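Might I ask for a little of your time on a matter of protein folding? Here, with my thanks, is the record as I have it:
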Amino acid sequence: MNCKGFLFDLDGTLVSSLPVVERAWLGVAERLNVAPQEMLDFIHGKQAITSLRHFMAGQSEEAIKKEFDRLEQIEATDTEGVEALPGAIELLNRLNELKVPWAIVTSGTIPIAHARSKAAGIPFPEVFVTAELVARGKPEPDAYLLGAERLGLAPSDCVVVEDAAAGLASGLAAGCQVIAVNAPANTPELSRVDKSLKTLQQLHVSYSDNIARIQFD
């Protein structure tokens, strides 16, 4: 596979944050009287505000915003157990060494995304697309389209690396090549992606003439 740049999701792709996410959202489920598994099955890969509007349908925007602010504060300050996923730091350092353009494109907000990146010790990108920057979150294509634009590349010249169904759908809708990593075997979008990996350690990159060449174990 060849490309000119990479667009990485953060949570579940570069960073292991599942315990933090589930702790925070199980608290939301309790406050909203929603079945915990129903909550966890819905939220992954989506903007928090999207999930809250879904579960708080019929409530005022003021009430939804209040719950959002509370959730954001919890998720931005609880980083216990957050760590880089296998191969993530090595891959990003390799891209920096080769001067391959790359960005992080996350459904999280700035406070949450920056806190988790710092806690995991991953390299900080020059382009960081967060929830505040797009009107429509994943699975809509807006976030990955913006990521490609800010790298100065066409979407078709970018490879999206994602773990969640919403993110895979977003990358495909944006017209990017898509690599799934750490995605559950029952994820419907796996049949549509270009490559599915168990770990980033399987992905190797070389670079010449502004083209990144990707090989897989």
Summary: The CA atoms of residues 24 and 193 lie 30 Å apart.
